[in-house]
Amino acid sequence: MKKLINLLVFIILGAVLVGCTPATNINKTFSNDKNFFGFSALTSAIALGDNSQSLISTSESSSLINLSTDVNTEVDMEKVNSYLQMMEMMFTDNGPILLSEEASDREGYETKLNFSAKDLAGNVTAYTLYINQELLNDEVHSDHEDDDNEENEQEYRLTGIAIVDDVEYEIKGKKEIENNEFEMEIKITLDSDNYVVISQESEDNELEYEYLIFKDGKKFSKLEFEVEDGKEIELEFRTTENGYRETYHFKKENNEIKIKYSTDTTSYTIKAKASVDPETGETVYTYKVKETNKEFKYKD
Asked: What is the pTM of this model?
């Protein structure tokens, strides 16, 4: 499991999936609420995890890159590494895969969902969700001026647990459906001070997501992204700490991920790839900065 770096600033992340991973993979990942549960559980576990990665080699004296004398162009490669691994499953063949759905073997839950997800090096993470969906409300509203125009509204309560790397996370939430539109909000909790609140909204064939991440009892980050038919991941960050905006574009090219970083004053390109250490079996992430020819390696 990878750790989303603990940012001490408020972050808004806008991501539009439009151009590099096959559209069928993205659609499969977000096609229904079960896949949404699986994606949300794994990304939340990554965000809340404590297993940081080690910088094992670099041609720089630190993991910071500074392309000019402007402090706003100084970029932390550990942050780049964390952002890539938050979404790396989207660049693999299928994204998170629902392997099976079966009756629960755990008391108090109706359904057991078994998932797997693959990282860029091909390593597979298997994890399990136990889910209950309770129908709270089912109403049909008619338009008195048009009897053929009926609106069907349903409301569900969601409860469950996710087990990722032998760690349990509590799941609570709600789902509302109105005709072809729906909204879902779930809270995935490690403990009372560490949890993620995720909302999903579907309207006009567009999916919108929002993540609120709480660690040590404090909200330290917020992420927002949209899912559309297409292949590229575009990440946009704004911070209130120093008042400048960072933009990240992620695109898969052959067996590498091309990362385009830019601010109002500069930009640079990073090529990233993952491999497996033949001696330890650990995943190694290698980043090479085009403009400086510097290289950074991180081990999971």
From this structure: 0.73
Q: What does the buried/exposed string (b/e) look like for 152-162 if buried means 16 or more CB atoms within 10 Å of the residue's CB?
A: eeebbebbbbb
pLDDT digits 0-9 by tens, 192-234:
999 999 998 876 666 777 888 888 998 867 777 666 554 455 5
How many CB atoms lie under 10 A from the CB of residue 130? 21
Rounded Cα gap, residues 272 and 295, in angstroms? 10
Closest by CA to 260, choosing from 252, 274, 273, 270, is 270
Reported as a single tens digit per residue, the pLDDT across 8-29 is 233 333 333 433 444 444 445 5
Query: How many other C-beta atoms can be found within 10 angstroms of the C-beta atom of residue 259?
Result: 21
* Cα 55 from Cα 60, distance rounded (Å): 11
Task: Say how far apart CA 77 and CA 288 lie, in whole Å.
Answer: 10
Which amino acid belongs to residue 223? Answer: L
Distances (CA, A) of 5 to 11, 163, 173, 215, 294: 12, 22, 26, 11, 22
